[in-house]
Amino acid sequence: MRGSIVFRNNEHCTKGFTLIETMFALLLMLMFASLFLTTAYVFFFADQLGSHHGEEELGIFMTDMKRLFDRSEDYWVSEDGKVLQIIERDREEITSFELYEDKIRRRVNGSGHVVWMQFVEDFRVYEERSGVRFEITLEGKIYRRSLIHPSLSKGAGGSV
User: Fold this and answer.
1) What's the CA gap between 85 and 112, in Å, rounded?
2) What domain range includes position 25?
3) Residue 93 forms beta bridges with which residues?
4) pTM higher than the cut 0.70
């Protein structure tokens, strides 16, 4: 026999690339390119990536606050506008919201520490005729939102 058919030794193919080698090199090149583009996007546009999280968090905060405010029996706003206290109808608990460092925290009966919102620059609550108005500063922007108390009566709340 002159040689095995399966393992042919072709001298003329030693100087080129096979199709599998070419496909493997192309696969590696595409993987590195996609990895580079992804990391470059994060590094070059990092300042723009987190800009909308504050607005989304504000929306969630106001939705949860509205739910709690609708269940409340009464509320009080401190004179400096930094603390909102809410008395719930079915419970004997006073829930307060205040700015702590850069977070809005929730405390029940003066104890505990549950973070409701982060990266807040300023938090103010103002009493209005039929409810409260929030002024929350995020990333240099002031967001104003109002909540109407279910009783809709003038003077439903008071000052602490």
Assistant:
1) 14
2) 12-48
3) none
4) no
